[in-house]
Amino acid sequence: MAIIGLVPARFLTLIAHLVITITIFWSKDENVKSCLASTYTQSEYDSKDTELSVALGLTLGFLAIELLGFVGGLSMFIHTQGLISVAAHASGAISLSFFLFDAWPCDYFWWVFGFCSAFPFLTEIVVIIITLRM
Predict the structure, then answer these.
(1) Least crowded by CB within 10 Å, which of 45, 96, 122, 129?
(2) What is the pLDDT of residues 55-68, one digit of tens each?
(3) Reduced to 3 DSSP states, what percent helix, strand and coil does the chain have, rounded to the nearest 5?
(4) Which distant-in-sequence residues (6+ apart) come within 8 Å of 57 by Cβ?
């Protein structure tokens, strides 16, 4: 892929990750139930629902900040950040699609969050800080 193709690929993978995260937010009931034993109490359900809601909220916040840094031009043409972002968000969108359709347990979401949302977010913050200091 040419470097010129990196900017649209980054935008599309960020949007794909954002869309699947919003979709999971709207239909998280099956994933919450897959985290629980066959018999569960309402407080156990509420606890797992809150845990997944926090994880999804953090993911949405991280994606929004990364999208603002990208669209704002602060990291749009930093090729290393572009490659990290494309790889992480493409992996995140694919993993979260499986998470949604196969009703993976909630605990798996934290792994996807760490590698596919938190890591590119941290590198984006570093790039933004370096760019603004110049």
Answers:
(1) 129
(2) 999 999 999 999 99
(3) 85, 0, 15
(4) none
Burial tier of 7 (Cβ tally within 10 Å: 0-12, 13-18, 19+): middle
Q: CA-to-CA distance for 14 and 88, rounded, in angstroms? A: 9
Are the CB atoms for 63 and 88 separated by under 8 Å? no
Q: What's the pTM value of the predicted model, to 2 decimals?
A: 0.91
Going by the DSSP 8-state scheme, the letter that residue 77 receives in this structure is T
* Residue 62 and residue 117 in contact, taking contact as beta carbons nearer than 8 Å: yes
Contacts 24+ apart (CB under 8 A), 64-71: 65/121, 65/124, 65/125, 66/14, 66/120, 66/121, 66/124, 67/14, 67/18, 69/124, 69/127, 69/128, 70/10, 70/11, 70/14, 70/124
